[in-house]
Amino acid sequence: MGNDPGQGISSGSYIVTTGFPLLTTRSCVPPQVGLHNFQYLGEALVARQPPLVLLRNCRGKLSMETGFAGEIEVRVLRRGREVARVVRPLRTTPHGPVVRYKGRLWPLNGSSINLDGRTLEEIVADDRPAASGLPEPAPADDGLQDDVIGAAPDRRLLVDAGPGTGKTWVACQRVAHLIRGGIPPGRIWIVSFTRTAVHEIRNRLSGSLDEPSDAIAVRIATLDSHAWAMQSGFSSDAGLTGSFNDNIEATTAQIRGSEEVQDYLMQRVGHLVVDEAQDIVGARAELVETMIDALAPECGVTVFADRAQAIYGFTEDSTVAGDEGESSLLARLEDKGFKAAGLSRVHRTSEPGLLKIFTDVRRKVLDGKGSALKRRAAIGSEIERLAGRDAGAAKDIRLEGLSADTLVLLRRRSDVLMVSGLSSEAPHRLRMSGLPARVHPWIGEALWNFAGRRMTREEFAGRWSGQVRHAGGQDAEGAAWNLLLESAGESETVVDVDRLRTMLARSNPPSLFTSAEYGDAGPILGTIHASKGREADDVHLYLPPDDQEEDEDSDLDEEIRVMFVGATRARNRLFVGRSSSRGAGNLNGRVWRKMPRNGLQFEVGRAGDLDASSLVGRAVFASEEDALAAQARLRKTPVMTEMYAHAVRELDYRYALRTADRERVCFLSRHFKDDLYSVAKSCGRRAEPGYLAYVRSIGIRTLAVEPDDPVLERLHEPWRSSGFMLAPMLAGFGTTKFRAGED
Questions:
Q1: Does the domain formed by 144-343 have CATH 3.40.50.300?
Q2: pLDDT of residue 131
C-alpha cells in the first residue's frame, strides 16, 4: 500500500486522505468496548481521524470513513410509522450523526432514522461540486457478483473467480448477506489455504458488515488452524507431531469416527466458505470433503477457486509437480451437486494490456494444449509484450526510489535474498514462506517487564507513555488497549496477560497482532508464491530463464501458472525482467549456495533461528545486565545492516550475533547451528564454519512465551516472569568461507 494521499487500494481497505502511511487497515472490538479503527505506522499505532473522509475503493464507488461515538437505540421509521427498533453504533460526520442500517448509512433525526429519506451517500453525492475531481462511479457490473452474493443460504456453489474479479469483496459481501438472512456470525466458517488470504479477508470483512463487530465472531482461519482447533477440542491426546499432513489426517479420522465431532459440525456450522480451493489437494482435500459430508443438509457451502492460479503443487525453490487428479478438492466436489458460478468482470485494473493478461492470457493458461515447453515460452512472451515495460535483470535492480505500493516478485527464494542483500540500505519489506510471524513490537516494548497475571487500563497507559518507543498519535494508546481487550479482555478494564501470552506464543498468532509483511516500510520484495492474494499499483516481475528440458512438461504447466499469478498482481503498471538461472540448495526450506573459492551463502532469519533462550537466556548472557543491554540495543537500533555471527567455543560453538561495533545482540538457536552443520557435511566438510558475515536486521518484533513453558526457567528476569521480549527481524544470506583443504 502506498502513502500518497488519496491513492486507491484494494476494495474494503482504504487509505485516509490525511496522508498517513497505511500498513494495517482495521480492527473491531465487542460492542461493549466500542469500535476503534487503527493503523500501524512503523512501530506505532496511529488512530484514524474521526471526521468523515471521502475515499474510493477499487470498484470505483464512493465510500465513507466516519468516527464513532458509542451506541444508541434507534427508531426505524417508514411512512411515518415505526417498523423496527435497534441498537447501533453512533457515527459522527460533517453532515451530522448517522447510523448504519441494512447496509446503508442513515442521518439521525433525534433518535430516529427515516427509510423514506436520503442516505448519507446520496446526500454527499448531491452536495458534491461538479468539478470536485472525484472519480465517476464504476460502470454497472455484469450481475455475476450479485448472483453469488445473494444466492440462497443453503446453496452449494463452486465459483470460478479469476484474478481481479473481486473474489474477496464478494466473499465478504456473501457473509454480510448470510448474516442479514439470519445466520449467526459465529456459525459462519471461512477456510483458506494461506495466511495471506486469511489476513486479507479478516482485514476487509468488518467493512462489509452492517455491524462491524460481527466480524469478530466469524470463524476465519487456515485449514490447518481449523483442523488443529477441532482435534485439540475433542481429543485429550492431541499433539502437534511436526508433520502437518499427520495432523490433517488425524482430524479427518476424528470427524469420520466420532459422532460427537459430527454433531458439533452439524450444529455449529451454518455456512462454510472455502477460499483458494484450487490449491487444496491430497490430505487437505480429503479433510474438506469430510467436513462437507458432516454438515447438515441445509448448510450451504460457497467455494471460490481459479485453476489458472493453482501453484501450490510445488514450493518456492523446487519444481516437484503437483498432479491434481483425484486428489484435488475441485475433483472431489464435481460429483457432489455443487452449482457452477463465476466472476468474469475484472475490477483490479483498467489498463488495456493488463486486462488482456487477466482475460486472454488466462484462457491460454487454462487451455493446456500442446507442449508445455512451447506454451511456457509463448505465454511468457505474450506477458512481456502486453506489459510493455522491461525491468532488466534482477541482479541490477535497486529498491531505492520504488514506492511503498510496489511489489518486486521473483520465482525463487534465493533470488529474493540476493536482491534484498544488494539493496540492504533501502527500507523494504519481505514476503516469503518460512519467516517467523512478525508480532508488532509495541507489545514487547510495553510488557517485557510486566510480571502480573492481569493488567488494568491505568497500568497499560503508564507503560505505553513510558516504554513504547514511537507512541504514535493522540489516540494510539487507546486503540492498542482496545486491541488487547478484544483478544484477551477479562472485563472492560482488565486484560488477562497470560491469555495474551498463550495466543501470541503460537507459531501462527492472531493476525490482528501481526503484520502481513516482514518489515516496516518500503516496497514489498517476495516470491510469487507468497504474493498470491496481494495486489499493487506497480509490479516488477522477474521470471527465470527458459532453460527447462522438454521432458519436464508436468513441471512447466505449473511454472506457467506461477508466471500468470505474478503478472496479475498489478493494478496500473507491470514491468517484466529476468532472474538468475543459478539454483540453490534447499534444507527443509532453508536455501544455501556454494560460492567460488570455498565460499558459502546460508540463509539467516527463518522461523526457529531465534528463541527465547538465545535472546535473554542465562546460558548465553552472564548477567541480567548483559541481557538488558542487548535488548536495549535492539530498541535503539532496530535496523542493522552490518552484523556478523561467530561460533563461541564455550557454548558448544553456538553462534553469537554481534553488531559492527562488536556489541552482542543475541545468539542464534541450536536449530540454526544444526542446519549449518548439515549443509557443511553435504559440502564435504567435517565441521560448520566459524563465522557468517553480512547478517542483517530489518526491524524488531515481539516474541512471547507461554506461561507454562519450561524454557522460562532458563531465562533471566524479568523475562522469566513476563514472557515477552524483543527479537531482531533477521534476513538475508550470511556469507562465509571454508578453510582451504578442509574436508
A1: yes
A2: 36
